[in-house]
Each structure stands twice: as C-alpha cells, then as structure tokens.
Amino acid sequence: MRRIVIAAAAIAASAGLLGASAAAAAPSKAPIQPNQYFNGLVNGKSKDATILMACPGPVGGLGHPVAGQYVSVEGPLSSGEGFTGKAKSIDATLEFNSPSSTPIHLATFRYYHEPGPISTELKLPCEGSGAVVFNPVLGGEKARATKVSVTFVNIAV
Fold first, then answer.
1. Is-above-0.70 flag for pTM?
2. Phi, then psi, of 103 in degrees rounded to 5
3. What is the DSSP string of 57-103?
4. What is the mean pLDDT of residues 99-107?
5. 40 or 23: which leads in pLDDT
6. Cα angle vertex 38, ends 35, 43, to 5°?
7. Exposed, middle or buried by CB within 10 Å (0-12, 13-18, 19+), for 105?
8. CATH number of the domain at 29-154, please?
C-alpha cells in the first residue's frame, strides 16, 4: 500500500511539473503594433485548417460550428505571411468559395495570442471549403493580409 501512495505522489508531482512547463512555454499576450509580421491561425493551424460542424440535416445544408473552436493571431514574428503596416488591430473574416456568399466577421484582435471563439450561433456550410482572412485594420499600403484555408467537416451522424 505504501508503494502505491509513493508512486501516486510521484506521478502527481511529475504532472504538476509538466503542467508548469507547458504553461511557461505558452506565448504571452502582446499588443499588435505597426510594422510587425504575423500569421493567422484557425484552431491553432496556419494552413489547411478544419472547422468542425454539427449538421443533423441533409447533405449540403447549413449547420453550426462545434463549440471550443477559435481563431487567433500569432506574432510579432521576424517574418510571416501578414504585415501590420500602420495597423494596431487585425480583423478575421470568413470567406466562402462561392461568389454569392457574404463574408462573415469572426473577430477583431488587438493582441497576439488571444483566441477569439468561433460562435456556435453562426450558420455555416456543413461541407466544402473557404478561407479565414486576417486583415490589418487601416494598415495602409504596406499592410498585407494573410489567409488560412479551411475545410468544413460535418461530425454529426
């Protein structure tokens, strides 16, 4: 019995140390400033991201994003896909691969590494693709937006 208690204490201590080091490794929130490189992220990915959808209806319909998904901006970086120019904030907008659809505003960021939730109230395609565009707000002619391609995946059965 004593060995089990000691082993459990060692495992708990190790877990605490791992948790502390993981927290220390997380990037800190920093304000978005002019003349900085950045990347946009969808669910932590800067390329080929997935947005999980709950769509109980027929194939090809609309549904709601599953809870817990987010968009964010990583930076400042020494190089990146996007450049703030004069901007101190960045808009994230979802665009679809359909000329008739209207882009949907997801979030406005004033800080790097601050997740913006993808609202479960949105009505989005149950399947297909699109892109989240991260565009510097009033960045001027030197600003450069970046896009993250997304695929909508229906997880409802």
1. yes
2. -60, 150
3. SSTT-EEEEPTT-EEEEEEEESS-SEE-TT-S-EEEEEEES-TTSPP
4. 89
5. 40
6. 155
7. exposed
8. 2.60.40
